[in-house]
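Form 7-S
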Amino acid sequence: MKKVILFVLVLAFLLGAGCTKAVRYSEEEIKSFPPEAQENIRKGQIVVGMSPQEVRYAWGSPDSVRILEPYEGKQLEEWIYSTLPVYGTRLLLFYDNKLIYSRGSF
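Output:
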């Protein structure tokens, strides 16, 4: 039984490792961002207030982007990431080029 559990754990690790993405940015590309944003990008984390470019550097390109009806004359976008190996499916909402909302399964 222990061998079966060990085999499943090793297999899960190998499959997960195969899903990781290469670095999506260079240090030169993110050097103009605030230090906190740079650190979040390096960790692959997103936080409210990030720009679309910062999110792309942290997570890569979304699986789909939908331009929504402008709100109070400002751009509104919905991004969906459905293949994130750690985070599961996530919906992000940008208003006036700033992340304002993140929801999804973990």
